[in-house]
Amino acid sequence: MKSILSKLIIIVLAAGLIISLGVGSEFISFGMDKNIIAKVDKMEVTKKEFIFFKNKKLSELSSSIKGNKDFMKILDYQIVDMIVQRKLLAREAKNLGFHISNEKIRQYILNTEAFKDIVTIANYETAIRRNFDLDVDVFEQILIEENLSDKYYGFIKEFLFINNDEAFQEFLKNETSMNYYKIELIKPINFKKTFTDSEIEEFKKTILSDKSTKASFYKFFKINSYDLNKNENITDSDLKSYYENYKSGEEFNKEKIKREIKEKISDKLITNELKTISNLVKTENINEISKKYNKEIKIFNISSLQAPSNIKTKIKTSKGLNFIYYDKSIWVFELTDNEIFQKDLVVNQMKVVAEKNSKKEFYNNLINIYKTNPDDFLDKIKSDNRLQVSFYNNQKAANLPLISKKALNQTESKKNINPYLIDYIFEDDKFYLIFIEKLRLPDSELFILDKDRIKNSLLIDKTESFFEKLNREIISNNKIELNTKYFKDD
Predict the structure, then answer these.
(1) Sequence-ordered list of residues with C-beta below 8 angstroms from that of 131, at least 6 positions apart, any chain
(2) Is the pLDDT of residue 206 over 80?
(3) For the packed helices 102-110 and 136-157, what is the interaxial angle rounded to 10 degrees?
(4) Do 173 and 454 meet the contact criterion of CB atoms below 8 Å apart?
(5) What is the pLDDT of residues 233-282, one digit of tens each?
(6) Sign of the alpha-carbon dihedral angle for 191, 196, 197, 202
(7) For a pLDDT cut of 90, what percent of the chain falls above it?
(8) pLDDT digits (tens, 9 = 90+) for 275-308
(9) Which residues contact 435 (CB under 8 A, 6 or more apart)?
(10) Are residues 482 and 50 in contact, defined by beta-carbon separation less than 8 angstroms?
């Protein structure tokens, strides 16, 4: 029962409920009573419950974001989504035979620190209304659903485990260190920039292939939350403060805490950016805006877009240049010709493809140089002024997931690793290669001492990931009926 306090009462009193965005439910609209916001399989989301959680979320947001109509509309959908998720999970728990009565919940609430001085039911009901602006039955129902959701999670969690192989791979990743060179192309590369009319028409066909001729096509670019947070410096003091305030009950994991802090900063930066984008789409064109954010304009087909139906509807009904906030990203988009794309846009896409292909060819040539004469590889590429060769000493494999996965796969548990090139072209807006000079593997006998801790840490991550997918699946199998008095299309 302790989780009820940690998940609702303490959070509500201290900082407000954190809404989980981008779950991906499908919404349909029906008329219903004005005191009901939405329904899901005969279960109702009341107006008071909705307003309660919305106010808690609004208390966390800046005034500039609150003034953004598009963001607020999506927020309304997401709050309904969150409430419905709790109700559906509580129902799943009931189906498994779990139960908790109103009397038991009430007695527990009266025994908590927040309500310890309340001695009568009348005082109790008054305190609920004063502190939460909710009727007692609604407040208790929320707590019951939270408790049942916890029971459901606890039951499912019993079936999740981490085996020794998974734990050992994590041990290797955490305890292995390496010296390596990062090899990057730093000068422009030659690629084809002019195309014949027949080549342009052929490229259009590749874009349109396997697509409906009646499909809507858009030109767009996407700003991800991490785009605005690339150089954020997290100090040891920040890590300690965050751990003491939010994670004191868990084992201190520096990298995990740093990742969480960066995610929270990124989330705040991306929502703060909505006001800027809102002004830009009114005054500038998509080409000018994309240059400000150093983003390439691309083309997408609305029928193939993986997004909730309300997001697709918003895009399809938008006129002119517009934007939408979805899944911690800002999409800036504009409808383009359904059948015949603008020539300059198509040529731009062709240049992007040609440049990427040229870069891949360049790096493949480097790989061939290594395969031909690995001993002289570094000397040869260091003399190439088109390349930047950066050395990194004693780096932890755990901090380099893309590199370490490939590197550890190639070691096959050998103790003495000769220098070698990871012959794989990584891509994160640009390409690079990694040359491993030295790999330091840990003593496998030390794994026994650390096995239990590693398993516990991995189980936490595995559980979070599993339940995120499970929640998405449960919600996607139910249609949410929205009250058209509150949810109307623009």
Answers:
(1) 13, 114
(2) no
(3) 100
(4) no
(5) 677 777 777 777 767 667 777 777 777 777 777 777 777 788 788 889 88
(6) negative
(7) 3
(8) 788 889 888 888 899 988 888 887 776 766 666 6
(9) 180, 181, 183, 370, 377, 378, 419, 420, 421, 422
(10) no
What band does 195 get if pLDDT is binned at 50, 70 and 90? very high
User: Three-state SS string across the chain, please?
Assistant: CHHHHHHHHHHHHHCCCCCCCCCCCCEEEECCCCCEEEEECCEEEEHHHHHHHHHHHHCCCCHHHHCCHHHHHHHHHHHHHHHHHHHHHHHHHHHCCCCCCHHHHHHHHHCCHHHCCCCCHHHHHHHHHHHHCCCHHHHHHHHHHHHHHHHHHHHHHCCCCCCHHHHHHHHHHHHCEEEEEEEEECCCCCCCCCCCHHHHHHHHHHHHCCCCCCCCEEEEEEEEHHHHCCCCCCCHHHHHHHHHHHCCCCCCCHHHHHHHHHHHHHHHHHHHHHHHHHHHHHHCCHHHHHHHCCCCCEEEEHHHCCCCHHHHHHHHHCCCCEEEEECCEEEEEEECCCCCCCHHHHHHHHHHHHHHHHHHHHHHHHHHHHHHCHHHHHHHHHCCCCEEEEEEEEEEHHHCHHHHHHHHHHHCCCCCCCCEEEEEEEECCCEEEEEEEEEECCCHHHHHHHHHHHHHHHHHHHHHHHHHHHHHHHHHCCCEEEECCCCCCC
Q: Which of 273, 270, 279, 247 is nearest to 260 (CA)?
A: 247
pLDDT digits (tens, 9 = 90+) for 54-89: 888 887 776 666 666 767 777 888 888 888 888 988
